[in-house]
Amino acid sequence: MKQLKSNLRRTLVVCGLLLIVLAIIFLIASVVGSQRLPLAGSLCALTTRSNCGLSPEQQAILFDIRLPRILLAGVVGLCLATAGAGYQALLRNPLAEPYLLGVSNGAAVGTMTALVFFGAHEWTRPVFAFAGALGASFVVYQLARGRAGATPERLILAGVIVTTFLSSAIVFITTLMDATRIRSFTFWLLGDLSGTTTSLLLVTFVAGLTGAVILAANARSLNLMMLGERDAFDLGVEVSRVRLIVFVAASLLVGASVASSGSVGYVGLVVPHLVRLSFGSDNRMVIIAAALAGAAFVIVADTIARTVIAPRELPVGAITALIGAPLFIYLLRRSQT
What we know:
Elements: H1 2-31, H2 39-48, H3 56-91, H4 103-117, H5 124-144, H6 152-175, H7 179-189, H8 198-217, H9 219-225, H10 229-234, H11 239-261, H12 267-279, H13 283-307, H14 316-335
Helix pairs in contact: 1-3, 1-13, 3-8, 3-11, 3-12, 3-13, 4-5, 4-6, 4-11, 5-6, 5-11, 8-11, 8-13, 12-13, 13-14
């Protein structure tokens, strides 16, 4: 009982600190950009919804451009980091991540299919993205399974195979577009947070919250499954049911993220791993902390992407890959020692 209270207290403290950091990052991101906004006036406007000395142009920049984009960046980071934490716990593999496993590409193929063939119906984007992510998840897992389970090497190889196939599918679908749309879709594939709508933002938020709650509810089972599926079964875990739940929840998270922002890579690799290094491997804490840290990470990456060469923008996926690729190499070399 004392141990349970201690773990709960520690989780609350860690998540409280991460919430404070997220709030600070949110505020900084709202005033930094190609046109800087006054800090005091922006804080006043965000909390009171009055003009607080901001000009109409500054209010439009804050509420119509930056605020929706920052909210989307936070939700996308939450989705990808939580999905990554779920995959890593389920597969007992620190290299498991939506982008590397081909799940993001599966969602991208689904989204592009919806855009090309059902462009008039916006609701088809998250539905097709979810279906693509779920299909890619199961294909990769089935390809990677062996007598010793899904080893890191087999998972990476299966992810490369599926990603290559899906990349070819993306190229094929792109050829069906007219020339004026190809450039925007290429930028979107690298991670673009500038073109979302209010309805997509709402869908992404609901899907992200739902997926995170589902994974958090199964955190104890994931802790036991990290010991091995056979040991977890002996301890009373319904392994097949938990595996299905995690795959579906993670696919929902990835599909919602990709449908609204494109493929933002390495978030699901970097954030959960750093959370485990900092706070331990208890998934009851890791999943919640990864959600908050992932939101902060993508907001920071997007702020860099839209300010480093302002007024032009970089794809946010380029920034996350710049950070995540070296860490991936480190983890890969570490898993081989």
